[in-house]
Amino acid sequence: MGLMDELEKIKGTLKERWVAHYKANRAWIRDQMNYSSQFYATTSDGGTRPSNAFILGCISALEPEFATYIPFFLQLNRDADKLIEILGLDFDVEKLLNPN
Fold first, then answer.
1. CA dist 24 to 10, 19, 21, 69, Å?
2. How far is CA 68 from the centre of its chain?
3. pLDDT digits (tens, 9 = 90+) for 3-52
4. To 5 degrees, how large is the angle CA 19–CA 22–CA 28?
5. CA 7, CA 94: separation in Å to the nearest integer?
6. What does DSSP assign to residue 91?
7. Taking every pair of C-alpha atoms in the chain, what is the biggest distance, in angstroms?
8. Please, are residues 54 and 8 in contact by the beta-carbon 8 Å criterion?
9. Which of 10, 51, 97, 98 has minimal CB crowding within 10 Å?
10. Beta strands of 1-100 (E only): which ranges?
11. pTM score, two decimals?
12. Cβ count near 46 (within 10 Å)
């Protein structure tokens, strides 16, 4: 399996795993986002999400294979928010969990 195939496979599960992790840890993640503006970012859909560093740390733990690629990606482009966008994780999880 080539690098791109491997990344697409990993990327395919990232959103669902990130949402599940967020949901399981929702109380303290939301508390941190409310406490410090350094802990969150505005999403392209007008909501908020945890910081890029927090998300990258979580997905590295959830998908250890992916962790080996993060330094490579950040050498190509230091904009970690762009990486979050490319991975399909630049969205407000609360809007997904509470669509009303």
1. 21, 9, 5, 26
2. 16
3. 677 777 777 788 999 999 999 999 899 888 777 777 889 998 899 999 99
4. 170
5. 26
6. S
7. 43
8. no
9. 98
10. 40-42, 48-50
11. 0.84
12. 8
